[in-house]
Amino acid sequence: MQKRVLGMMTALFVLLCIVAVGCAQKAPAPGGKEQGGKKSPLGVDVIKIGGQGALSGSHADYGRQMQMGATLAAEEINAAGGIMGAKIELKFMDEELKPPVAQKNARYLVKDWGANFLVGIDSSGSALALGPVLKELNTIQFFTHAGTEKLTEDLVYKQGIKQIFRMTVPVYQDAILPALVFKDMPELKRFAALNADYEYGHTSWKMFKETLSKYRPDVEFVAEANAPFGTTDFSAHISKLLAANPDVIFATPWAGEAVTMLRQAQAQGVFDKIKIWWQAMGGSVDVMEALSTDIQKDAFKGKLWGTARYLHNWPDTPENRAFVQAFLKRWARYPNYSAEASYSSVYALKAAIEKAGSIETDKVIKALEGMKIMTPAGERYIRPEDHQAVYTVPMGRAVWSSDYPIAIIGDLKVVPAENYYRKPPFN
Amino acid sequence: MARTNPARNISNSSRIISLSLLGFLILILLGVPLFASSYVCWIIGNVLILILFAAGFNLLFGYSGLLSFGHAGFYAVGAYVCAKMLMTIPSLPLALAAGVFAAGLVSVVIGFFCIRHTRIYFAMLTLSFGMMIHSIIWKWRAVTGGDDGLVNVPVAPLRVPGLLSIDLGRAENYYYFLLTLVILGIALLWRLVHSPLGLVFQGIRDSETRVAFCGLSIQKYRLIVFTISGLYAGLSGALIIPLIKAADPGMAHWTFSAEPVLACLLGGAHTFAGPVVGAILLYVIKELIIRFTEHWSLILGVAVILLVLIFRGGIVSVLEKGLLPRLIGFFERGVKVDRSPGS
Amino acid sequence: MLKGGVSLDFSTILYQGLVGLNLAMYLWLIAAGLTIAFGVLGVLNFAHGSLYMLGAYFAFSLYGAWKLNFWLAIFLAAALVGVVGLIMERFFFKYIYKLDEAYQLILTFGFVLVFSDVVKIAWGGVFTIPPLPDIFKGTVGILGRPFPVYNLFIISAGIIVAIVIWVLLERGWWGKMVRATASDREMASAMGINIATIFTSVFVFAAALAGLGGALSTPVRVVDPGVGTAVIIQAFVITVIGGLGNLKGAFVGALIVGLVSAYGILLFPGVELFLIYVIMALVLLIKPKGLLGG
Known about the structure:
By secondary structure, chain B is mainly alpha-helical. Chain B is built from 14 helices and two strands; from the N terminus they run H-H-H-H-H-H-E-E-H-H-H-H-H-H-H-H.
């Protein structure tokens, strides 16, 4: 009996706590309307942007880069008077690469903290799980990393979840672009894959094979090895592929796994035997930082190719130079693609709000659809059908340049975006 | 654990208090959608599911002394089967039943092997089976969607032909549906624990030989308790689907199996209310931390370490042995109620 | 020809075995400390993977950032992790030996959470990797294919560690006391052995072994805040296959898991992870004391 009294009492107490916390933290309506006084023409003094990305675990740097990019944009905009007089307020949370956590964060940010807009998300699984929630909350989210083509092709184009916008190029970059470049190199005949053993890796390899075999019936896909998420040793995968004597190894493990894999491949003498190692997201700043000394010493013998969803050394425009300089000054690091995309998202949002003259979701969606905006990565065109930002990112070889303290992707091959982005109706 | 119970002699007034507190608690839970934000409502929905998961898990852990690190697997089976069903046939009762049934089936099969061991061997065996389920979900991409999981799962209305049709896509409707099922589930557990069967489970935990001498088959009872807790895990997994409309392989990972363990230990594994309180506590701690800092992992870790070192039997039993007797004593001295033995 | 286009000749199969051996030695370095700590203290330490991670971070700082001599950096990193182990044992673990296993597991799980955030605060969220030491650059031809010098070094390091542990435990006075404590605490205590000191020294030794494993892995594996949880389950699997607390068993377990992974990738792609859990379950069901257990 006593146990029951006690259990219930404690439960009651704790439950009251959670409700109290929930209610106390409940936002005073989006945008802090209660402040009164001089309001901007938008009817609010503050525009709240809620962000989330991986801030813990193996990929903690990706969320951190988003946070840095969005913060820089918000600081610049606020210093210049805000969006139509309204200041931007940011809050960033850890999605932990777990879909349920991403959902929880989004609900918290919108319903409790009072976010008007959302930005971020690293994991494809989180992005897809978030889709229906965004529709329910009727809140716009700019996705700034998650690469799955399903997000825009299925959820936006086929299922009509209009609250989704993606500012980064999806897996087209990892798969279709290299196929279009390698098709013109007749010496490349035997292709092998070291796939990330999850949707991203398998989809990339499939798209790559489909595109390449369309142009080059003579190529062979000779071997495949799959590395699960969190693999710490790739030597068994690499030795399996080498036994098939490939010309090109197409590799999709990313971030720390990519660096581990390349270091082990190098130790195994891979670069004496193959012609090209395609490291899809090899141009990511964290990967370039970690491999700088290797690339400086030419450990990959100029055979390491890669790209990213934005390269800080391209395009050579005033916008990009100014952004990279400002970012370096503020954070003492080079911006990665998730940082650039988050930065550009905030500016795209600013442009859309100014165009719509409102922060209402439906009006901002209308303003964003079909928008063309100049960003550090070049001009982005937000396709109205699938809400995918279309912009060009080149691919190239990992090289050392004395202009930069870290290795970069140089020797660039530029294919215009419209040639390698898949187009509606996505059949 | 010592089974001392110094205060068996609790008066009828305490019984009344406890029942009215229980009533009050349910009343508050019923009122949540009316006065709390939809986020709080959604979070409490999640907490209710973890409560159900942890309470069912505690039947195995606290009442039978078997620590499983594989129950996330059953949770995931319940969730995936329910989601798959909803994507083909729009009937929630059918989907829930299928999820629970599948989880039960899987737990009978796995339980058949696992109950041969106890202690750390049992923990490691359940861990390996749980991770097998995880790797099957991860690899069987055609059916499970691999790491992308199943997304945008439709929620079917609750329909009794000719009688009623409730749209469970609406958050508050589903909240009440969930609350009803969780209360029923907990009540059923309470009955079970206080039935002769429940006594057998505790008997096995405290002394296998004594129970064996009574002519009962230990393994049979272990399999029963394993399956019941697997069914509860499956039901919890199935119930999360309409709430989050998605299923992902993380549901089957061993780190998720640690959540009910944490809930039971924080609250107190040897009490009925322990996992309930622990589940709530776990959510509250993390909810509070993430509002102030991104370093939730550090603070949660420190909290876990301190709780293990200071509140060894869990919050509920610490309060039970220290705070509550004093409180009750104070109350009863105050109102001068007769101390009649037994209750 | 095999699915995936790899031709299966004799040298390919043999070479893959060598790759598996290299894999096995990393696993052995992680599992050895876990096994010793469990065998003597009776605590299965979830945070053992985090100690491995700390070793890697220390080695990165000492060797990669401060440019210390490689060998000195490895040694210091292991020693520093030993110090961390000392603090953990003296201030926390020593209070939980009498508790239920569940509480012990959860306490060590708390340390996993703490360490993953502490390293993020100290080293940042970015993964890190120091350059490969020059003496280990290059390959040697084995079976007509290049094999990394560093992998040969790891294989020999794993064997040397096994010999050192064996000598320490089987031949020295410390080993005698440890073995006595492991087999019967009360009897050992009655014989005048200071159990508390033995426990501390064993835990420090186990922690240093984890640190050594982490330090040795730095030039070829990145270290990031998620490494602790990534390696611990494999270490558990090995410890179980070998028999909880059985060191020789752990060595054999590491060999099995290493070789099954390497050959699984070559011959049964896609099921290698599943296969390892099946082996773990089978061993637990058929020989719960481990393959070499009595």
